[in-house]
Amino acid sequence: MNAPFVPSLAQVRLLDLADVSEIARLEAFVARHPEGTPFHRPAWFVPVARSTGNRAFALVQERAGEIVAFLPLNAIHSPVFGRLLASTGFAVGGGLLTIDGAEPPAMFLAAEEMARRLSCPSIELRGGALPQDNGGWAHKTGAHASFARPLASDDEAQLASIPRKQRAEVRRSLGTDLTVDVGTSQADRDAHYAVFCESYRNLGTPVFPRALLEAVLDGFGADADILTVRHQGKPVASVISLYHAGAVMPYWGGGTWEARRLRANDRMYYELMLHARRRGARVFDFGRSKTSSGAYHFKRNWGFEPEPLTYATWTAPGAAMREADPTSSKLSLQIELWKRLPLGIANRIGPLIARGIG
To answer: What Pfam families does the record point to (predicted)?
Structure first.
């Protein structure tokens, strides 16, 4: 008589991120998963932690030795905003990935225990499978939206796919004395960060440390690049883009004051669409924007339709909710003051603050 079948129990544990074989397992799991994003990749959350002085964790659930659930986490500390466990840090995506056989509640309980152990009174899950809206967890829907659409089949079709008013702006940019370069050399990185710093100061936002951007570029290797628009040899708009699962995502970008007059940002995104298609991308993922913000309407002008996002947050009993959203009305005064800072001062102070925003 055969013994009755006993299903193997799922085990939740932290992977050793110093083990290159474990990193390879995670990269393969994310690559296979239909909901995997660039922000689930160890190439993102490990360098992000290292370059900002924070910590990275990979919480997995295994059954018979195979990963059935994965939650990437960054433990972020800020003397201004407090401590946070985020999935994932400095990202607009992340959260729990599961396949058949997973037991999500056990993963959420493990994340809560980790937060307590690390003295993090807050957890943010920026996508993925979400916990029930109870037991300290709350859902937030509609505050942000994502934007994505397929790329066209050729250059002319791409231009024709842009709504009329925005297409006119792109056509004007094509008649301007602008040049476009793509690469990841030191010169590309220098040009990008100079533009990025000025752009963030003008928006009233502390700029991220250069080490963060460099670490992500190095971590992604061929799956990231920098596109820079120059006017008379001077960089006026530049963007770091990530490539994942057939999609391109322009992530860290911006322009100088001159960029608007020159329509350099319009040229930058159009050229990126063309470049990404030539690289083999099929989808242009315009990323996340706060609902009804300037960026939100800018993306709609390009013909992208908003898809509301739902995030989940956990707050420890008795703790106050964390407030670190740069677009928050509570921070509006600080934002206006930051816009008035001399660029040199903003560039020195900004990274010290931004490394803890998460």
So the answer is: Acetyltransf_6
Token pair for residue 108?
């959420």
CATH number for the domain spanning 81: value is 3.40.630.30
CA 163 to CA 298: how far, in whole Å?
Answer: 12
If one counts the domains in the chain, the total is: 2
Cα 165 to Cα 163: distance, rounded to the nearest angstrom: 6
Question: Considering Cα of 278, then 284, then 285, then 290, what sign does the dihedral take?
Answer: positive
315 and 265 together in one domain: no
Rounded-to-integer distance, Cα 65 and Cα 162, Å: 48
- Residue 104 counted as domain residue: yes
**Rounded Cα gap, residues 313 and 75, in angstroms:** 14
Report the distance separating Cα 159 and Cα 154, nearest Å: 9
Enter the tokens of residue 350.
């900004």
Determine, yes or no, domain membership for 356: no
**CA–CA separation, 203 vs 205, rounded Å?**
6
b/e burial code for range 256-285 (CB count within 10 A of at least 16 → b): beebeebbbbbbbbbbbbbbbbeeebeebb
Count, residues in the chain: 358
Q: Is the pLDDT of residue 242 over 60?
A: yes
* Full-model pTM: 0.90
Q: Is residue 330 a part of any domain in this protein?
A: no
Phi then psi for 136, rounded to 5 degrees?
95, -10
SS3 129: strand
Q: Read off the pLDDT of residues 304-318 as tens digits, 9 standing for 90 and up.
A: 999 999 999 999 887
Whether the CB-CB separation of 213 and 193 falls below 8 Å is answered with yes
CB atoms within 10 A of CB 238: 28
- Residue 332 confidence class, pLDDT cut points 50, 70, 90: low
258-283 confidence digits (pLDDT tens): 999 999 999 999 999 999 999 999 99
Q: Is 2 contained in some domain?
A: no
